[in-house]
Amino acid sequence: MTQPKPTTLPSHNHWLAASSHEELAASLASAVAAQLRQALAAQSRASLAVSGGRTPTAMLQQLSQQTLDWHRVDVTLADERWVDEQHSASNAALVKTWLLKNNAEDATFYPLFNGANSATLGQTHCQQQLQHMHWPLDVLVLGMGDDGHTASLFPLCPALPQALSTQDLCIATQAPVDPTQRMSLSANALMQAQHIHLHIEGAAKLQVLEQATALQDRNQMPIYTFIQQTLNIHWCP
Length: 237
Prior knowledge:
Elements (H helix, E strand, L loop, with lengths): L12 E5 L3 H22 L3 E5 L6 H8 L8 E5 L1 E3 L9 H8 L9 E3 L8 H12 L8 E4 L17 H6 L4 E5 L6 E5 L1 H5 L3 E7 L1 H13 L8 H4 L3 E6 L1
Parallel strand pairs: 1-10, 2-3, 2-6, 3-5, 6-9, 9-10
Antiparallel strand pairs: 4-8, 7-8
Helix pairs in contact: 1-2
C-alpha cells in the first residue's frame, strides 16, 4: 500500500507515490515519455531537462527504453558541476551512461559544461548554446537535496537572488561543498516548463519537502519556488 498525500502539501501539488524504487522509476519514466509524445504530436521538437545524482539512474534507464521520436527531442540538464565528462561527478556522463542509449540514443544533448576556465566565464557561451533548444521546456525532472536545494539553486548562496530573478536560461552558481562551481538553469527557465516532476525517495526527503512547505521561504529552501506552482511529486519509501 502506498502512502497517501501528506496533508501539509498544497492541493495544487500532485502526489504520486510508489511502493518501491523500481516501481517509482518505471512510473515516472512512463509519465515523462507520454508527455514528450504529447508535445511531439503538437510541435516539431520537444525538450527535456533531467537532474543528476544517484536517485534518477533507474528512471533514466527506463526512459531510454521508451518508444517515441527521440530524434526530435532535445535533452539538457537542470544543473551541472563545472567538470568535464571524465570526472566522476559529471552529470553529463551520468546522462550519457543511463539515458542516451537504447531508443534514446538519437536525442540531441545540450551539455552545460563547455570547458571554460570557470562557470562564470562559461555562462555566456552556455546561454548561446541552450538557445538552440526548444523552449520552454516540455518536461522537467528535478531532484532535491537535504538542504532544500534543487538544480544548483542553493540556500543563501551569493548567486541565489540572481538565479531566482534572471531572465537568462542559465546562471553560474556554487555549491557549499566541492566542486563549488556549478552551472544551473535559472529558476525562470525551470518554472516555465510545461510539466514539472520532483523525484524524491525516502522519509528524510519527504520531511525536507514538508519543512519547505511550512517555512515558505525560497531563499532558505529554494524548492519552495516550485512547491508554489503545479508540481508532480514522485516519492517512494
